[in-house]
């Protein structure tokens, strides 16, 4: 057993199955592997020193690009809809229209602010966004072994890319599916491009982007990382899946949601702000001892 899997923050419904999948992935090697990961609160930290870290949306919401009046409205939306997002008493079907409502209202407010493209970079630099501890090893290991990493996010692609670019890990093997901003000829935000991605339509997003999975059709093993039950469908477009290992970060409302996470994810990481488990599995699968 990989030692990191015996840590107290690690929970598994069936440890024997997890071991079997990891061994099968190791046998197939790095050439058969692809990694699919959510971004906010999966690759980024949930909290640091007891303070919540921002999502892509929050980076903008709290920035100098947004008027005080608009900040209040965005905060009200967060206070209304985030508790719904993490409410274990509501089904995905019940939450879905409300999540669409949240994203739609928030994006309309951001568009009203006519955010300038060239100010995204300084705003990300000044923000308190943080990738999880061990992120460098994670991204570098995938690059070293030419393992494709798909970051599949309901956040904001332009902000997400800036976070990983500034961290020096936007390597050529990284591809992003997310909500991208559409700027006018003066570089001011005028809309969001394409179909909205929220936390409960990642399956549709995966199927719409079939070209990406077609390119990776020889990679039948998937390591999936997420923090929401909606993230479980991110790999639905993968061709001829042979093995999938799903790692779920359980960051908030831990006791209430543990059972459902244990049913859905192979490995559940409770209040773990690191990439240690994923890194240990990758090390093993890519041939390390
Ligand atoms: N206006 C909004 C809408 C969503 N969020 C959060 O973003 C997260 C989605 O991004 P993933 O990378 O995790 O797919 C989601 O969990 C929402 O809580 C937000 O902060 N503001």
Automatic annotation (TrEMBL):
Q: Show the InterPro entries listed in the entry.
A: HAD-like_sf, HAD_sf, Pyrimidine_nucleotidase_eu
An example Gene Ontology CC term for this record: cytoplasm
Question: By its UniProt entry, which PANTHER family does this protein fall under?
Answer: 5'-NUCLEOTIDASE, 7-METHYLGUANOSINE PHOSPHATE-SPECIFIC 5'-NUCLEOTIDASE
Task: Enumerate the catalysed reactions.
Answer: CMP + H2O = cytidine + phosphate; a ribonucleoside 5'-phosphate + H2O = a ribonucleoside + phosphate; N(7)-methyl-GMP + H2O = N(7)-methylguanosine + phosphate
Q: Which GO terms describe its molecular function?
A: 5'-nucleotidase activity; magnesium ion binding; nucleotide binding
**Biological process according to GO:** nucleotide metabolic process
Q: Which NCBIfam families does the record associate with it?
A: HAD-SF-IE
**Record keyword Transmembrane present:** no
Q: What is this protein called?
A: 5'-nucleotidase
Name the domain of life this protein comes from.
Answer: Eukaryota
Self-association state and partner proteins as the record states: Monomer.
Q: Which family, according to UniProt?
A: Belongs to the pyrimidine 5'-nucleotidase family.
Localization of this protein: Cytoplasm
Show the coiled coil region(s).
none
Q: What is its EC number?
A: 3.1.3.5
Q: What is its main location?
A: cytoplasm
Q: What does this protein do?
A: Specifically hydrolyzes 7-methylguanosine monophosphate (m(7)GMP) to 7-methylguanosine and inorganic phosphate. The specific activity for m(7)GMP may protect cells against undesired salvage of m(7)GMP and its incorporation into nucleic acids. Also has weak activity for CMP. UMP and purine nucleotides are poor substrates.
| SUPFAM superfamilies, A to Z | HAD-like
Q: Which organism is it from?
A: Conger conger
Keywords, in A-Z order: Cytoplasm, Hydrolase, Magnesium, Metal-binding, Nucleotide metabolism, Nucleotide-binding
């Amino acid at each position: 057993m990989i030692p990191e899997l015996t840590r107290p923050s690690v929970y598994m419904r069936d440890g024997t199955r997890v071991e079997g999948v990891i061994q099968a992935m190791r046998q197939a090697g790095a050439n058969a592997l692809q990694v699919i990961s959510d971004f906010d609160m999966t690759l980024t930290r949930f909290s640091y020193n007891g303070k919540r870290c921002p999502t892509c949306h929050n980076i903008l919401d709290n920035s100098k690009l947004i008027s005080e009046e608009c900040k209040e409205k965005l905060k009200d939306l967060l206070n209304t809809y985030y508790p719904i997002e993490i409410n274990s008493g509501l089904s995905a079907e019940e939450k879905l229209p409300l999540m669409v409502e949240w994203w739609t209202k928030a994006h309309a407010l951001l568009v009203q602010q006519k955010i300038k493209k060239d100010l995204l970079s300084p705003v990300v630099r000044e923000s308190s966004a943080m990738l999880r501890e061990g992120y460098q090893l994670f991204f570098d290991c995938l690059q070293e072994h030419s393992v494709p990493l798909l970051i599949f996010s309901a956040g904001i692609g332009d902000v997400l890319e800036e976070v990983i670019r500034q961290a020096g890990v936007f390597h050529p093997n990284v591809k992003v599916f997310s909500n991208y901003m559409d700027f006018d000829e003066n570089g001011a935000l005028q809309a969001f491009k394409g179909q909205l991605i929220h936390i409960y339509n990642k399956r549709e997003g995966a199927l719409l982007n079939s070209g990406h999975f077609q390119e990776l059709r020889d990679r039948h093993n998937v390591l999936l990382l997420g923090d929401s039950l909606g993230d479980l469908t991110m790999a639905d477009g993968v061709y001829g899946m042979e093995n999938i290992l799903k790692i779920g970060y359980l960051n908030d409302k831990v006791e209430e949601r543990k059972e459902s996470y244990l049913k859905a994810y192979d490995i559940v990481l409770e209040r773990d702000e690191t990439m240690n488990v994923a890194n240990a599995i990758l090390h093993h699968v890519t041939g390390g001892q």
